[in-house]
Specification:
This protein is mainly β and 360 residues long. Helices cover 6% and strands 41% of the residues.
Length: 360
């Protein structure tokens, strides 16, 4: 006679929508009388859910026919068979204990010659939760923060919902260093201007602007300044590139003194300053000097001086500034020309330029 060893390996709830049947997984290993596995055989089974004891009332009964695998393992879904009595979805799992009774026909029929009963030691919790009993008592309320108060003396107070409070110690940090309150706050007119015969004004303005920019914290400043120490011949009425080969400083290595080009390292608004000095000993009355600021070859600003009159000395200073917006990589150059009717000399040592980033 064949015998069966029943092993419950898992009870896993498969919760579905309320309109669909609920199920739990059940597995059993079937062996023959000689203790060999009933492998690859058709097995008939009747499953009963008993309440109260191993001989208690059957609240649910179903039958199933399944096939064992190579290891004699039969897998069923209780709740998915042919219902004989009861309703699996209405079992009150809180009102246990419960037992599973299996009756088996090793030949796949309904001649259930072998039976076994096992207690459900673990309640199908999800099934129980769906129709659970009385909920437990509410937990104790936690303590929360009601308000915080800045006491104005470096401390603050936290008020809690249980009417207690906490006041911190003095959190005031050390006094920081005093900032620059002179040049940094001194207004400066950055508009275009002509400053003839007074070269000192341009350098004063450059020094003042340097101090103001140095006082700005967390601000990227790009600056370059160069001087032309050699006399340069400027043809009549011909725009000529002015170069400044002797650099005073160049924070971003942006000015090419050989090419006479400032390549913008950081996009923003730049103040361009220049001073050019012409030798006017050979100039006729009415001759006039000009300076152009060009970006990528296009003139964006032009500085003009009044024409030479009979009372002027042997030199004409043309000093001024303008603000231009440069994109990163733009090329800025300074050009000069004059209308004397003949070549003129741009005086070395007195001609210089500077480019400062003043805003982004």
């Amino acid at each position: 006679m064949k015998r069966i060893i029943i092993i419950i390996t898992a009870l896993i709830l498969c919760s579905t929508l309320s309109a669909q049947p609920q199920k739990m997984s059940y597995q059993a290993v079937v062996r023959k009388a000689d203790n060999s596995l009933a492998a690859n055989a058709t097995i008939g089974m009747r499953i009963s859910i008993l309440q109260g004891s191993a001989t208690g009332t059957a609240v649910y009964v179903e039958t199933q026919t399944s096939s064992s695998n190579d290891n004699g393992l039969v897998t069923l879904e209780i709740g998915g068979g042919n219902v004989q009595s009861g309703d699996f979805s209405t079992i009150d799992w809180a009102n246990g204990p419960y037992f599973i009774k299996t009756e088996t026909d090793p030949n796949g029929g309904t001649n259930y010659s072998i039976s076994g009963t096992s207690q459900l030691l673990s309640v199908p919790y999800a099934l129980y939760a769906e129709a659970s009993g009385t909920p437990g008592p509410a937990g104790v309320d936690g303590v929360g923060v009601v308000s915080t108060i800045d006491n104005g003396d470096g401390t603050f107070t936290i008020n809690y919902s249980d009417n207690t409070s906490f006041t911190s110690g003095d959190l005031t940090g050390p006094q920081g260093p005093t900032g620059n309150t002179s040049a940094a706050n001194t207004p400066y007119n950055n508009t275009s201007s002509n400053i003839p015969n007074n070269p000192g004004n341009v350098q004063d303005a450059i020094d003042e602007n340097d101090a103001r920019l140095d006082a700005l914290e967390n601000f990227v400043v790009a600056r370059a300044e160069g001087i032309n120490n050699q006399n340069t011949t400027i043809p009549h009425n011909q725009v000529t590139l002015a170069t400044f080969p002797n650099e005073n400083f160049d924070t971003h290595n942006a000015y090419n003194p050989t090419a006479g080009v400032f390549i913008c390292p950081v996009a923003g608004y730049y103040e361009v300053k220049s001073r050019v000095v012409f030798d006017t000993q050979t100039w006729s009355i009415g001759a006039q000097p000009h300076v152009q600021y060009r970006v990528n070859g296009t003139t964006v600003a032009q500085l003009d001086n009044d024409s030479r009159d009979a009372g002027q000395t042997a030199r004409v200073f043309l000093s001024g500034s303008d603000i231009v917006y440069l994109n990163q990589g733009d090329q800025l150059s300074i050009h000069v020309f004059q209308t004397t009717g003949a070549n003129s000399t741009l005086m070395g040592g007195s001609t210089h330029m500077s480019v400062h980033l003043i805003g982004k």
